[in-house]
Specification:
Layout lengths: L1 H5 L2 H13 L2 H7 L4 H15 L4 E4 L2 E4 L1 H28 L4 E7 L1 H5 L1 H12 L3 E7 L2 H9 L5 E5 L8 E16 L12 H4 L4 E3 L5 H12 L7 E4 L3 H8 L5 E5 H8 L4 E3 L7 E9 L6 H17 L5
Parallel strand pairs: 3-4, 3-5, 7-8, 7-9
Antiparallel strand pairs: 1-2, 5-11, 6-9, 6-10, 6-11
Helix pairs in contact: 2-3, 2-5, 3-4, 7-13
Length: 308
């Protein structure tokens, strides 16, 4: 199409910005354009496409379904171009390729460390970039091609734009510092545990949902949160206060327990989460990614917690 040949990379950024702000003046300022020039470009693009990208209202712009589709693909193109630039920079520093992996805390403390050592020996020339965040923040990066895969909990329903491969099962448990008063007891009940301050995962996160479901199954209310946070480092540090309790996955607890910092309390939750790897649907894994996936499977097999 003629409009594709005339389109420049910078204009893709303009379109994405306009979709995000739904405001001509804000986008014009962000992209260092005049508003009349932006309006003229948008009208010409809509004419070339033969569809309306935005509905014009007094309060701003409302993207149409045509715009949503176009921006979805624009993000993918920009993601691939930015990945290409990162790969070239890595190669200029001596690497022969690049792999970008997203991970949530459960992956950082469990499968990923066990996998990376093996992968580095298998692919010594590959520069592996690891990005830790919530799954909500990582998924758009995966769909845009800015990440090769994500190691995380897998929850139903799975986004149709990704392929999910379950790798292992993880339980969750209540933890305290080894100096906590409850850490010295052989038997602990929920009523007593609720008397202490809790550092809980943020509302809406997978670990928080697992905690709430586990407590509901045994007829217990969720403890009141003194602090809500998703940072494992922060929560582990808060536990050293001596009174605070928290909930963590088995993998995180095992990693921190090796440092002699935590004690698992005998409070049953009975919930297990499926941990696995997510990648983009409709694309075949590159040899670099396929080797990484193989290493993840080997790490899960060695841990002996494969899902049924």
């Amino acid at each position: 199409m003629d409009w594709i040949q005339r389109l420049r990379v910078r204009q893709l950024y303009v379109l994405v910005s306009l979709h995000e702000t739904a405001n001509l003046s804000l986008t014009a300022a962000r992209m260092h354009m005049t508003q009349p020039a932006l309006s003229k470009w948008l009208r010409e693009l809509e004419t070339d496409l033969g569809v309306e990208l935005f509905e014009r209202h007094s309060r701003g712009l409302v993207p149409t379904r045509f715009c949503d589709t176009l921006v979805e693909h624009a993000r993918m193109v920009l993601g691939e171009l930015e990945r290409t630039g990162e790969a070239l920079r890595a190669m200029s520093d001596g690497a022969v390729g690049q792999l970008l992996v997203g991970t949530t805390p459960i992956g950082t403390s469990g499968l990923l460390p066990a996998c990376l050592g093996h992968y580095r020996r298998l692919r010594p020339g590959i520069c592996v970039g690891v990005h830790e965040n919530s799954l909500e923040k990582l998924l758009p990066l995966l769909k845009e091609g800015r990440l090769d895969c994500i190691v995380s909990r897998i929850e139903a329903p799975v986004d149709p734009a990704v392929v999910a491969e379950p790798l292992q099962e993880e339980g969750i448990c209540v933890v305290a510092s080894r100096d906590h008063p409850l850490a010295r007891l052989r038997k602990v009940d929920w009523a007593r545990a609720r008397d202490y301050p809790w550092a809980l995962p943020q509302a809406g996160t997978p670990l928080r949902r697992e905690l709430e479901l586990g407590l509901a199954a045994v007829g217990e209310p969720t403890p009141r949160a003194a602090i809500e946070a998703s940072s494992v480092v922060l929560i582990a540090s808060l536990l050293q206060d001596g009174e605070m309790l928290a909930v963590m996955s088995d993998a995180v607890v095992q990693a921190l327990s090796r440092l002699g910092r935590l004690k698992v309390l005998p409070l049953a939750l009975g919930r297990r989460a499926t941990v696995g790897v997510l990648r983009r649907a409709g694309t075949l894994p590159t040899p670099v990614l396929e080797d990484f996936l193989s290493c993840l499977r080997d790490a899960a097999q060695a841990a002996g917690r494969r899902p049924e």
